Amino acid sequence: MKRVIRLSIKTKDRQGMTLDILRILNNFSVDLRSLEVKPGMIYAKMYDDLYIDLKRLKEKLLEQRDVLEIKEIELLPQEEKEKYMKTVLNATDEGIIAIDKYGKVTIVNQAVQKILKIKEGVGKPISEVIASDFPILDTIKTGKSYDHVEFALKNKNSSCQYMTSGRPIWDEEGKVIGAVATIKDMQSVMDLVYSFTNPSMTTFDEIIGESEKIKKVIEMAKIISKGDSTVMIRGESGTGKELFARSIHMASPRKDRPFVAVNCAALPDSLLESELFGYEEGAFTGAKKGGKQGLFKYADQGTIFLDEIGELSTHLQVKLLRVLQENKIRRVGGVDEIPIDVRVVTATNRNLEKLIEIGQFREDLYYRLNVIPITIPPLRERKEDIPILCEYYIQKLNRKLNKKVEKISSKAIEKLMEYHWPGNIRELVNIIERAINLCDGKIIEKKHIILQEQDHIFLMNTFKEKEKSLLLKEVVAEAEKKAIIKALREHKSIRKAAKALGVSHATVINKMKNYKITNG
C-alpha cells in the first residue's frame, strides 16, 4: 500500500523557490500528486512507492537556501477546505447535488444518496444518476432558478415522488458554469407542513391572562368547544391561534381522537389537495401503491385545524365547501365518496371579507367556516396581562434553559408595558427568553430587556463588550431568524414572506421549523 506524505515547507518568498523544491523532490523519486503554493509556504502531497528516507528528504530540503521550516501535516489546505465542505454538506438532512455546465455531477451529499437510493455519482452525467428530465438541466440552459418543483423517479418496481429547488452558478463574467439543487422526499415535506400530535398537555390552562378581553375569549372558547360547529379563529400573527385550536379540541368530546394541524400556505395546490383528501393508486406519477387516505380521513372523529385558510386556492375552496356540506370526501383520482366525521377549526390573520370582495375567497365557504368566530386580541390591547405572562414564561423557560431566575423587576415591566408589541405573545416569549439568557442573577432587570428596535445595537454591543468569537453559523442563524420573523409580521402569509425574502415558501417553512418560529 502506498504511503502518503504531506509536507508544509515554510520559505522566504522569492522567485524560483518552488522550482528549487521540485528539483529536490524529483531527486528523491517521489510521486508528487499535489502542490499548493502561497507566499512563503509550499505544500506538497506525494506517494512514496520506494519508502524513501523521509528524514533525509527533510534534511535535504532544509539545506536548500531560504527554506526555513518543514513539517508533516495531516491535510493540505485545499484538502482541509474540501473536508470541511463535505462535512457541512453531509450534516444536513436535505439532499444537495451540483453539476457543471456539461451536466456532470460535481457534488453529491449523503442525504441525496439516501433519499434517491443512489450510489456516489460524481463525474457521471446527472441524466444517468437521477433522470434525463431532472429540472436542474433546464437551469443550465436558461440560467433560471426554480422552486418547489415536483418530480418522480422511476425504477423497475416503483415510482417515488420528490420535491426540488435549483439555482444556477455564475462565473465572474455572468456565464452559467453549473447549478445546484436541493432534493427532499415528499414525506419530509409533509413533516414540515402538518403534525400529528397528541395534544394531551395543551389546554385552556396554558392560555395565560387576567384581562377582561382575554377572559371573555377563553370563556367563549370553552363554551363552544362542547359542540361540533366550525370555528374560525382570527388574530394577528403571534397571538396564539393554534393554542386556542388545540385547547378547543382538548375540551371537546373529541379529545381522545386525532388532532391534525395543517398549514394551507405551505404546499402547492396539487400536493395539498392529495394530502387533505388522499388519492387512489395510480392517480398521478409517484402515487403510492394502494393510494393514501388523506388528512381528513386520518382526523375522522377528531379535529382538523386548517391554519392560514386565507391562502387556500379557489379550487380547494370548492372541495372544502363540499366536505362541509356533505361530510364526505373524494380522493384524487377516485369516484367513491367516503363519509367522514370531522370538526373543522380554521385560523387566519388575513381580511377574508376583503378577499371576498376581490373574488379571492368564496362567500359561501366563508359562512360555512365562520359559524363561530373567535377573535384573539393583540397583546397591545391587553397589556395588563404582561406581568402575569412574564411570570408564567419565566418559570417555563427556566426549565428549558436550566436557569433559576425568580422574577422580573418593576422597571423591566415598565419598559415592556411601553412597547407596542407587533409580534404579540410570540415576541414577548422571545424577549423573555433572551432576558433569561442575559441575566446573571435571579432578577431580570431593565437592561436585560432588548426590544425589536434595539436588536442591532444590542448585538453589536454584545460582540464588543464580551469580545466573544461566535461561530459564523450562529450569526447567520440569528440573522435568518430575525429576517423571517420580520417578513411574517409584515406580509402576514408564508408565501408573501417567502417572496419578499427571495426564497421559496418551502425554504421559509423549513427555516421556521429549525428556528421554532410559528405563524399562529
UniProtKB/TrEMBL annotation:
Gene3D superfamilies, per the entry: 1.10.8.60, 3.30.70.260, Homeodomain-like (1.10.10.60), P-loop containing nucleotide triphosphate hydrolases (3.40.50.300), PAS domain (3.30.450.20)
Ranges where the ACT domain occurs: 6-78
Domain called PAS: residue spans: 81-116
Entry annotated with the keyword Nucleotide-binding: yes
GO process terms (BP): regulation of DNA-templated transcription
SUPFAM superfamilies assigned to the protein according to its UniProt record, in alphabetical order: Homeodomain-like, P-loop containing nucleoside triphosphate hydrolases, PYP-like sensor domain (PAS domain)
InterPro entries: AAA+_ATPase (IPR003593), AAA_lid_NorR (IPR058031), ACT_dom (IPR002912), Homeodomain-like_sf (IPR009057), HTH_TyrR (IPR030828), P-loop_NTPase (IPR027417), PAS (IPR000014), PAS-like_dom_sf (IPR035965)
Keyword Cytoplasm in record: no
Keyword terms: Aromatic hydrocarbons catabolism, ATP-binding, Nucleotide-binding, Transcription, Transcription regulation
A Pfam match: PAS
Molecular function as annotated in GO: ATP binding; DNA binding
SMART domains: AAA
Residue ranges of every copy of the Sigma-54 factor interaction domain listed in the record: 207-437
Name the UniProt record assigns to this protein: HTH-type transcriptional regulatory protein TyrR
Organism: Garciella nitratireducens DSM 15102
